[in-house]
Each structure stands twice: as structure tokens, then as C-alpha cells.
Amino acid sequence: xxxxxxxxEEIVALAAATASIAVSCECARRPYAxxxxxxxxxxxxxxxxxxxxxxxxxxxxxxxxxHPEGTNxxxxxxxIALNYYPANRCEVWQCRHCQRCxxxxxxxxxxxxxxRMRRLQFELVTLVE
Length: 129
Ligand SMILES: [Zn+2]
Fold this sequence. Notes:
Number of strands: 7
Number of domains: 1
Largest sheet: 5 strands, antiparallel
Strand order of the largest sheet: 1-6-5-4-2
Shape: globular
Distance between the termini: 29 Å
Helix content: under 10%
Order of helices and strands: HEEEEEEE
Bound molecules: zinc ion
Number of helices: 1
Structural class: mainly beta
């Protein structure tokens, strides 16, 4: 498995190439259109890590979110802004079976660890600085 830094153009290309996948798959029983906590029954063995969104260290990553249209973190139509939280700390994972791509990160709260996932959706990816 790879954990190299992916160029933004690579991520956009991956999103474009996988945008029209419609085949049914165990990974897609839920759409993961917005950020969701990973279901305990999600078939993680299907996913393979492609790489990470940012080359920066955690402490250097921007903590602001990007919501010019009034969306929030959980909105299904929230932009996937690669330079903003939380996309900037994500890894890209791809299903070996259907090729769908997902962004994943782990939220470390005071008393919890929440593993979150969202489908990489071409129409929502934005490269705004
Ligand atoms: Zn799949």
C-alpha cells in the first residue's frame, strides 16, 4: 500500500475517472456522500490506500473549513476543498472491487476517536487555496 503525497491534479483525475461508477458493491451500501463515521460493518478489507492529500505535517495543516455556500462539515453538498480541513488531512483509499474512491481521516476528540469517511466526488472537489 502506498502513502505517498498525491498531487491535486492526480486526485481530481481519480475523482473524474471514478465519477460514473454505478456497479453495486459492498463498500457502497451507504453512499458516504457527506462525512460519516465509519460503520463497524464496513468491509475495510476491500479498500487499498492510494496516498495522502497533503505533504504537510499535521501541525502545519490549516484548521479552517471551506463553506462559501453556507454548508457545514456534515453537508452532503459541502465542497471537498483539498487545502482545507478536513480534506487536507485525509488519505485517499480505493475499493479493489468497484474502484470507488474515498477520503478518510481520524478525528481525535478529548474522549473519543472517530474514523470518518466520505466518497471522493468529482463535482465537489475544489483546489481553492
Ligand atoms: Zn467497492
